[in-house]
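Posting this for the archive.
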Amino acid sequence: MESLEKRWNEWVTSLKKKDETTDKDAQIKSAQIVYVFGPPGTGKSFTGDYMHVMHGYHHVDGDIPFKNVAVKPEYYEMVEKWIVKGDAADHFSELARLTLEAAKEHDKVVLSHATDKNEYRDHFIKKLIEGGASEDNIIIVQLTIDPKVKARGLYHRTKRQVEQGGMSLEDLARTSWEWEFEGELSEEKFIELVIEAEEKDTENVFEVHPKAVMVDISGRDVTHFDNVDKVLGLTRSNELSYESICAKVKPIDEARDKITMANGFFDVIAEIFAKAGNESLAIEEEGEDEKKVEEMKKRRSSIVQCELLVRDISASSLKNSKSEKVLMRRKSLIMTGKIEE
């Protein structure tokens, strides 16, 4: 009797699970999924957070695997595979899984990520469809921005970050981007050199996706929101100013950054890049004072954060630069906080 009752209960439970699965599959299929990508500095996370705050989308931050590399072993393996071996398939499969999981519970989902290659984008979209998403409900949005506007924003973010690490923007620029210039690196000079470097870099081109809707967000004003809303058919109150919307949106990403910094992300990422061949990011701790080691790690974290921030022009330096001068400069920056040649 107990055996039959057990079998019956298991059968009923399996039916409930089947119904639940069917419901979840239907939810995924009916959900609208917006895939937002653009170069670093275009405001992808900001756009995703805006869509969450103002329009009720569930925002999936595409940097979740990277930002959790220090706390999840499976993410460490995933990121290491991409950086060391150049295989990003697992990373984009995971982004698809996270997006589909969100679609089970939300009818509107947005994923934001700095995906630069169509190969990666198409892999992500393929996995979404394989997981039950409707191709008709996937909207691909590619953010564009005036190069000068982007470079100006990167100047202030990079300068603030490197100075928090106890170094100068000038030393970072001479190290990470191999720029040679006299005196102080002004905002205008920074913009000029960034644009010049991007024009020369033919290997790290940010590709245009043939199915993407192009959205210009060069205006650091309500036109950013207007342009996003237009392509998605969204409306919002005209009474809200750009500043009032930013006051609601920006704290979300700031909170994410604090968590990322606290969990040791930049130390672990630096170690992975060292494995990829960039020995200048390695720190020899043996025999060193504990306080000095911590200071070196702090400077290294700032360097890596800045190079990731401006990875349009520093992708090669993050991996293995062939310039002995650059390697020596980075090592000197990490050890002493300044270039000593």
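The radius of gyration is 23 Å. Strands lie at 32-37, 58-61, 108-113, 138-144, 213-216.
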